[in-house]
Amino acid sequence: MTDTKHDSEKLVRDFLGAWEGRDLEVICSAFADDAVYHNVPVAPIEGIAGIRAIFEAFLNAFAEAKLDIVTLAAEPGLVLAERIDYFTMTDGRKVVLPVNGVFEVRNGKIVRFSDYFDLADFEQQSGFKL
């Protein structure tokens, strides 16, 4: 299967948009079984089971999530997405976080997802330790 620019971009846009719906199965369906998720600078998470666990923890901590794309650049198998992520924590606190995401796509699935953001800023706003 060839991952076209259009298909790679659609996969990532759909994944980012899925957070508003809060459906763990839909969110995780974008990933290959052996995918790597890396919130830089914390240690990467390897494999869909670990990715599912961290995403479930996020969904349990956030009452609402909206990942707004500011700029997106796509090539076949590679998508760069500058975002502002908006979270409302279950205790009502609001988190507004600038993020840059790098997505590697192979055979219609995300195989590597690296997010670059200010970890101290996220942890201070959310009270959530990564």
TrEMBL record:
Give the matching Gene3D superfamilies: 3.10.450.50
In this record, what's one Pfam family?
LEH
Q: What is this protein called?
A: Nuclear transport factor 2 family protein
**InterPro entries xref list:** LEH (IPR013100), NTF2-like_dom_sf (IPR032710)
User: What top-level branch of life does the organism fall under?
Assistant: Bacteria
- Limonene-1,2-epoxide hydrolase domain sequence ranges: 10-122
